[in-house]
Amino acid sequence: MTKNKNNQAIWGTRIQNSTSSFFQKVGNSINIDKRLYKEDIIGSIAHVEMLFKQKIISFKVKNKIIYGLNKIEKEILKNKFEFNTKHEDIHMNIEKRLFEIIGDDAGYVHTARSRNDQVITDFKIWMKSSTNKIDQNLSKIIKTILKVAEKNVETIMPGFTHLKNAQPLSLGHYLLAYVEMFSRDKKRFLKNIESLDENPLGVSALVGTSFNIDRNYTSKKLGFKKPTNNSVDTVSDRDFVLDYLYCSAVCSMHISRIAEEFIIWSSDGFGLIKLSDKVVTGSSIMPQKKNPDLLEYIRGKSGSVYGNLFTMLTILKGMPLSYFKDLQDDKEIVFKTNDTLVDCLKILDEVLNNFYPDKRKMLELANLGFITATDLADYLVKNHSMSFRNAYQKTAAIVNMAEKKKKRLEDLKIEDLNKIEPRLTKEALKVFNLKNSINSKKSYGGTAFENVRRMIKKYKRMI
Ligand code: ARG
Q: Which of 18, 44, 134, 293 has the most CB within a 10 Å radius?
């Protein structure tokens, strides 16, 4: 067995000159992957337990290794472990220290495995728990939105298309749109658990191993559903990383959209919502300013998250099978994405708990732009047996007339309407009322107040 003298690389017998010191400095990953120390130790313990069960290592060696690994974990927790860039990554750092603690028996820990399967085993365990944390943060946001929506079922605001007043709706209904988006994010992330649940450990460097290992045993021990099927694919595959990054990109796009929405709504031009002082910042020169920096921050961060997805896609493109050093960057990309996304989810939750709709302003804006014109067209179809296109033209003429007279639709007199459609009676004017308009949208998924209340109840049962 190779002697592992301190500070000598494990491959020091074969490679007799030390690697370029500059490359050692830039090519190591310890400061990034030390985050995987817990998973690495758990993985190694499961591995040696399996090796013992399969009679590949002795009881004594297994116990010594587990003792050493537990000691290392305590050292790391107490900040007493010295992470050394010379030993490249977390796997080598731990193995090196194991030699120092238990001596040459540490040399058995790497039987029937390689860093190639070790690293993705650690990584997948880490990503599963990261996914669960993201899921919890998403649930928290959904709960907050439901709380705000519940208070605003009857808050009337203009719904926009092209940012022009389109049709009136309930603010509660509007917010529930984001519940749908964040629920889909949850589903998307949880679906990726399926691939994260396949255990890479035991495929070794790329072809499997001649040792009589039991991969089902380590799968069970480490909480995986099953072992991966193909050794070459296992060490080359980073689809689970791409899926995670894609889920994150979509989620951050949703965060960015609601952020943009709130930035517009809180602008002086719109003034539909107010942000409390907790979620704004000031200006160094303009004393009056209260800027929506938190929202701008999370809108901007979606750019980095998209970038991470593209970085990983590009690293993988054109890479032959199986493991290459290029893959080392996957950890940094995922860790950065996780940290950014979790921060953004927390910030969004804070904003959602600290904004106030200006109901008067919302109503005022909803009263502009002939917003109930479609309701009149629908009325004509239903009550005067017209085709929708015909009704649309008549209504457009009525809108033109209102615009000329500088009046809102509801301020027109029935005599005015009759110049365009003589059959209309006073009864028709009711369709211009915002509340009537909203409450007529009873179709499944529509904005009628009772629909919104029902949906909130449904979501609450789900969460
Ligand atoms: N630090 C490496 C990584 O994260 C571990 C795998 C090393 N394997 C190798 N064959 N050099 O990718």
A: 44
* Residue 115 beta carbon below 6 angstroms from any ligand 1 atom: yes
Residue nearest to atom 11 of ligand 1 (CA): 325
pLDDT for res 17: 84
Q: Check pocket membership of 386 for ligand 1, CB cut-off 6 A.
A: no
Domains, the chain, with CATH or none: 21-111 (1.10.275.10), 116-211+229-358 (1.20.200.10), 365-449 (1.10.40.30)
Give me the pLDDT at residue 21, please: 85
CB atoms within 10 A of CB 204: 24
How much distance in Å is there from the Cα of 91 to the middle of ligand 1? 9
* Tens-place pLDDT, residues 358-395: 999 999 999 999 999 999 999 999 999 999 999 999 99
| Residue with CA at minimum distance from ligand 1 atom 2 | 328
Residue 2: pLDDT over 50: no
Do 76 and 37 contact (CB within 8 A), yes or no? yes
Percent of the chain with pLDDT over 90: 92
Give the catalytic positions in this structure.
162, 283
Q: What is the mean pLDDT of the chain?
A: 96
Query: Are 435 and 156 spatial neighbours (Cβ–Cβ below 8 Å)?
Result: yes
Atom 12 in ligand 1: residue holding the nearest Cα = 328
- Environment class of residue 456 by beta-carbon count within 10 Å: exposed (0-12), middle (13-18) or buried (19+)? buried
Q: Which of 266, 239, 240, 258 is nearest to 362 (CA)?
A: 266
How many other CB atoms are found less than 10 A from the CB of residue 260? 15
Q: Are strands 198-199 and 226-227 parallel, antiparallel or unpaired?
A: parallel
